[in-house]
Every structure is written in C-alpha cells, then in structure tokens.
Prior knowledge:
Blueprint: H1 2-5, H2 9-17, H3 30-33, E1 39-44, E2 47-51, H4 54-63, E3 71-75, H5 81-89, E4 94-99, H6 102-115, E5 120-124, E6 137-142, H7 151-156, E7 157-166, E8 177-183, E9 186-193, H8 203-218, E10 223-228, H9 233-240, E11 243-245, E12 249-252, E13 255-261, E14 264-270, H10 272-285, E15 295-296
Parallel strand pairs: 3-4, 3-6, 4-5, 6-7
Antiparallel strand pairs: 1-2, 7-8, 8-9, 9-15, 10-14, 11-12, 12-13, 13-14
Helix pairs in contact: 2-5
The chain binds S-adenosylmethionine.
Amino acid sequence: MILRHVGDPVIARAFAEVPRERFLLHPAPLWQVYSDEVVVTYRKMGVISTSSQPTLMAQYMLWACLAEDSRVLEIGSGTGYNAAVMSRVCRRGYVVGVEYNGDMVEFARSVVRDLGYDNVEYFEGDGFYGYSQKAPYTAIIATVAVTEIPIYWFEQLKDGGRIVAPINLKTIYSDPTVVLEKRGKNLVGRFVTDTRFIPARGAFEERYARRYERLKELLDLEETGVLKLKIPKTVLEFASQKLWVDSAVYFVGNEGYAKLEGFNWRVFGDVEKELKSYESDWLDHGDGDLFETVFRLMPFEGSMVGSFD
Ligand SMILES: C[S@@+](CC[C@H](N)C(=O)[O-])C[C@H]1O[C@@H](n2cnc3c(N)ncnc32)[C@H](O)[C@@H]1O
C-alpha cells in the first residue's frame, strides 16, 4: 500500500523492507499499519508517540537529500520506525535517533537488534542539544514540532547539510515544515508545507516559558508609541524567536515589549529599533508570505544569501 504512494524507488524499497508493525507497542490491524496514515506507536501515562504518514516521512527524506552514505540525526525518534527506514536508505551511512522518552529508546533498540540493522542507534536525550557524540551529520530531521532551530543543530551539521523540521509557530494553528541548508555561517531556506506534529518538550518548552517570565518583568513599562510593521507575525515569530503568544501576541525584546492589536504593535519601553531591524531584514531579503520567505536565522552570524532553489 505504502509503496504505491512513494515516488522514489530507493525510499520505496526501504519502506517495503522495514516491518512497520514491529515498531508498535500497541497492535493495530495490518491494513491500518500499511496505509498512508499516522499510527499511534506508544501511549503510557499521558505520553504519546505516533509514526507519521509514510509519504510525509519519504518527503522529509527527499528534502533532506538523503544519500546512500548520509549521516542522519533524527530528533524525536519515538519507537524507532522512521530512523530504521532511513537506515535502509542510507545503507553505507549511519542514522542516530534521539528520543526524550527512555522507554521508547529501549524498545527501538530491541526491535532493530532483532531485525539485524547495525547502522542505526537510538539514544535517550533532549533533542534540543542534538547529539554531539556522533556529529557531524549531513542531515538533521526533526519529527517533533520545535519552537526554534537550536544553535547545537547548526554546529553539528556539515557545511552543505540540511535541516528539515516542523516549526511549532504559536501565531498559527499548524507546524509548517522548514527546509534549511547550511552555507558557511548561514542557514538558508524556506517553509515548504503545512504539517502537524507532537510539540517538543524539554529545553524547547522551557525556553519558550522563559520568554513569558521576561515579559512579566517588562509589563510595568510605559507605552511609547504604536507601530505598523510590514513583516508578517509568522515570519517575525520564526526569525526573531522572541514572540510570546497566549490570548494576545507579544514581542519580548531586550529593553521592552510590543503587543499586537489588530494590525498595530503597541510599543512599551525601548523596543522599536529591535522590531524594525527584523522588518528591514525581511524587506531586504524576504518576499511575500511565510512560504515564500527566504530566511537568515538570527542566532547565526552572517547574512542571508538567497534561496537554494
Ligand atoms: C511524532 S513522534 C516521532 C515518531 C518517530 N519519528 C517514529 O518514527 O515513530 C515525536 C516524538 O518526539 C519525542 N520528543 C518530544 N520532545 C522531544 C525532545 N525535546 N527531544 C527528543 N524527543 C522529543 C516524543 O516523545 C515523541 O516520541
């Protein structure tokens, strides 16, 4: 069933080889396991993990430009299926899965041991930090929705390597996937499609929560003006990684904050310059909406160098 939907012959063969049902902790009917659907792989004490639609996983592999000898890091490897499939695509390469939940890691290890796959390994950890012990990687694929691209991923990626990740944007109700390529000190790329994934825990959650703590410290500041910005809030959220979204959208700056009301940003304290720098960056290098925008990510030095298309 899956084979019919996967266009690339190497990736299709990999899906045909790996028995998906072996990676489920809860049995499901085979027609469902071999359909192009999300399958629940783990559910225990409020923790859930799912295996994504095979065609989406295949598309991620294509975006990441996986080759026979790629070294791949998967963030959020769950019970191990996607990493196992990638290990068949990258037969002369190596795949590392990092998973937050140790129970799933043990399970994934035992399944690939039984199947005799020796070029895939799973480790328990917070994917925010990547997995430096086995770096560098030619591709980093996240199968969990992250609020930002950590500097660790950038450091552990080879020049020319790609990151494919769903971004948990709080300003919209979806996790659009971004494809980024490392070029020297830059990460360049664009959003490619809309997706929905489980949100990442650990440092991703903690860092987002810290923005709220900072916002609370700034709330006493006087209002200093009103701004209309041309940068869409989704783009601002990803490029700045400084938004806090609850019932309203806030930009949490270094010396002040701004609150979005309709199309206006009400500014409190000294934050106008910071906000405008994101806008002018985007006006100089970006174009159109979220999906047409080419990004330079702020944590990395250097400037945006255009699209890789
Ligand atoms: C959609 S599932 C991924 C499924 C997996 N790729 C597969 O093939 O079955 C997302 C996984 O990310 C894990 N996760 C959440 N936050 C994480 C983090 N900070 N680091 C690593 N894994 C994380 C979850 O426990 C969950 O198992």
